[in-house]
Amino acid sequence: MDLAGLTATDQRVLLAAGKASCRELLADCRVRAEMTEPVVNAIPTTHWESAEELAGRLDDDQSLMENAPLRGLVTAFKDLGATAGVRTTYGSPVFADNVPSVDDPIITQLRRCGVVPIGKTNTPEFGKGSHTFNPVLGLTRNPWDPTRSAGGSSGGAAVALTCGSVSVADGSDLGGSLRNPASFNGVVGFRPTVGSLVGNQDLNHRASQAVLGPMGRTVADVGLMLGAMIGSEIAFAAAPLPMRVAFSVDLGDLPLDPLIRSAAFRAADLLSDAGWDVVEACPDLSDADRCFEDLRAHDAALARPTLVEDDRVKATARHEIRLGLSLEPERVAAALAIERQIQSSWQRFFANGRYSALISATSQVPPFPVGLEWVEEIDGVHLNHYTTWMRSCSRITVTGAPSASLPAGFTDTGLPVGMQFSGLQGRDVELLSILAAAEDIFGVAPSPDIAALALADTSTLPSGPLG
Fold first, then answer.
1. Is 465 domain-assigned?
2. 374: which residues sit within 8 A by CB, 6+ positions away?
3. For residue 261, what are the CA distances in angstroms to 249, 272, 440?
4. Rounded to whole angstroms, how far apart are CA atoms 3 and 124?
5. Which of 182, 372, 433, 456 is most buried, by CB atoms within 10 Å?
6. Would you say the C-alpha torsion 13, 17, 18, 22 has a positive or negative sign?
7. Please, are residues 278 and 385 in contact by the beta-carbon 8 Å criterion?
8. pLDDT of residue 200
9. CATH code, domain carrying 273
């Protein structure tokens, strides 16, 4: 039995029933990683020996973490989270040799839940930009096409899931870092309601748009992981019909790659054909882009102001810190006021049960060539900032609402496409039920051809932005 090819929920059932051991699951995941990592570089930091020791203890002592919800499942922590005794680089030369002495709270929580960690998943420098490359740990490639981006900043996590190297994965999301890589790789990425998870360590408590969240191969896997992250088991089932949802493929006016636009309309048609009431409508997200950019820069300046002139840090990250430092208090206050207005407008859009969710394209583009640092043009529209192509996600960020990318098919060129489902603040479980109903229609995304991926000639693959 290929345990690594099963969903996390199926793996958990087999482990709990004694039909598979933690050692066996870990061994199968290691085989997947050793086949694919030379090509994709999703988990550049590994510690297999300590993982094998923990898996062995779990097998030999059934009382150890007996009721832990993720007992024996394999994972790797995103390299933006501090892990005690394990190199944590944040993708930056500034922290190339950093080995923390304590875990971040979310890492502590996941360890309590029984995971078997094998290492750290790759991320862009400080999580900046939705393309996973950095000068310390290199480039992460898309397993569906290694010449294409894996997205980011949870790109390593999404790729590790897609390859079957891990059972579940943690990630984080400010402007789309759980959702974009999920769309690019054909997995599920869930951004919870702002403030709903333990361990969000945002330095600016006035502007807390960044969240932690789960990734998985299926909605059930994401629900399992989300429950572990919040410390409470989540029970949900596919939402019943009738279902009335708003649909705005481009959130009103965003440029979309024609391949994304056509795939998104195909997905909406599938829902309609299955009996969903799909209504073209869009909430008022006026000024969301400016609000997001200002608060993102403000957070960057608060988090790492001393790096603004450090030429070891990539230029786009330094530019963002510099912008944040230049913001007058009045401009920050104005951005916070806009955020509140947008969140009120969002509530009104859903008022009285008018819609169960808003559906839109997760990403404005399919996975792009790895040699690009960021997307500078979409369907003839020039983009002037490295986050502009991510606005299909970042506009939803400003609402504070839960949102997720669900695999919804492929482009005509065979690359995964995700649809973004967004709901009401605090209604995360309800959104999971809606996602489960949609997954029943779209189907669970297949896996790429792992054997063919393992045979890829890396010497012929194009290099990333750093050469």
1. no
2. 129, 130, 131, 316, 386, 387, 389
3. 7, 17, 22
4. 30
5. 182
6. positive
7. no
8. 47
9. 3.90.1300.10
Distances in Å between the Cα of 13 and the Cα atoms of 7, 17, 54, 237, 444 are 10, 6, 19, 18, 19
Give the gyration radius of the chain's Cα atoms.
21
Structure tokens at 250: 């481009």
Is 466 within the bounds of a domain? no
Given this model, what pLDDT does residue 1 score? 84
- What's the rounded Cα separation, in Å, for the pair 110 and 215? 13
In our burial notation (b when 16+ CB lie closer than 10 A, e otherwise), range 196-220 reads: bbebbebebeebbbbbbbbbbbbbb
Look up tokens 């709903």; give the residue.
196
Give pLDDT, residue 207.
52
For residue 374, is it within any domain?
Answer: yes
SS3 string, 370-412, reads CCCCCCCEECCEECCCCCHHHHHHHHHHHHCCCEEEEEEEECC
Three-class secondary structure of residue 421 per DSSP: strand
β partners of residue 138: 134
Phi and psi, residue 368, nearest 5°: -100, 165
- Supply 291's token pair: 């609000």
- Distances in Å between the alpha carbon of 129 and those of 52, 144, 388, 389? 34, 21, 10, 10
State the Cα–Cα distance between residues 1 and 447, nearest whole angstrom. 16
- What is the number of structural domains in the chain? 1
CA–CA gap between residue 60 and residue 21 (Å, rounded): 10
Query: How high is the pLDDT of residue 183?
Result: 98
Question: How big is the chain, counted in residues?
Answer: 467
For 389, the domain range is 3-460
Query: Of all helices (H) and strands (E), which one includes residue 326?
Result: helix 315-326
Number of neighbours of residue 319 by Cβ within 10 angstroms: 16
Q: What is the DSSP string of 251-297?
A: TTT----HHHHHHHHHHHHHHHHTT-EEEE-----TTHHHHHHHHHH
CA distances to 203, 371, 379 from 365, rounded to whole Å, are 32, 15, 9
467 domain residue, yes or no: no
The edge-to-edge listing of strands for the beta sheet with 277-280 is 169-173, 211-216, 188-191, 403-410, 416-422, 358-361, 244-247, 277-280
Of 446, 450, 449, 443, nearest to 219 by C-alpha is 443
- Residues in the chain predicted with pLDDT less than 50, given as ranges, are 200-206
Which long-range CB contacts under 8 A does 315-322 form with residues at least 24 apart? 316/128, 316/129, 316/373, 316/374, 316/386, 317/125, 317/126, 317/128, 320/128, 320/296, 321/297
Residue 338 neighbours by CB distance under 10 Å: 19
The pLDDT value given to residue 208: 75
| Residues recognised as catalytic | 78, 153, 177
Task: Of 366, 387, 325, give the one whose Cα is nearest residue 128.
Answer: 387
Q: From CA 340, how far away is CA 358, in angstroms rounded?
A: 19
